[in-house]
Amino acid sequence: MNTGSDEAADAVAADEAEQAESGAKPLGSRAPEFIQARRALHLSWQVGVFIVGLAVVVAGIIMLPLPGPGWLVIFGGMAIWATEFVWAQLVLRWTKRKVTEATQRALDPRVRRRNIILTTIGLVIIAALVGVYVWKFGLEMPWNIKQ
Prior knowledge:
By secondary structure, the protein is an all-alpha fold. 75% of the residues lie in helices and 0% in strands. Helix 3 (39-63) runs antiparallel to helix 4 (70-82) and helix 4 (70-82) packs across helix 5. The longest helix is centred in the last third of the chain and has 29 residues, at 109-137.
């Protein structure tokens, strides 16, 4: 019966090779040695880190529809979790890699030129619509216009 552990081991080995090339920190707990040496203390430490990270992530989720830096706070909570949990470290590495790739694509001169052209076209269209509105109704607000 195949439990899939071979694929998981291959993925971990590939990630370890990638981290050795990039000079990234090794995966695993970053708790102090005296905490890691005592199982009960380490488990309490992990529970505390999880609760603090969860509170920060929940605050970020609440900030998404409200004013505030929602995504920044969510990634901060993930960073807190990444101090203790391998799964969070892998998610954070993947996110950093994707953000770096998107940044490189956005800095491509052709993409920047296209974005500037599209922004200019959008601004010209908006200016034309505002001009037509002002020509037709003057500087009246829409809710004050009499039919």
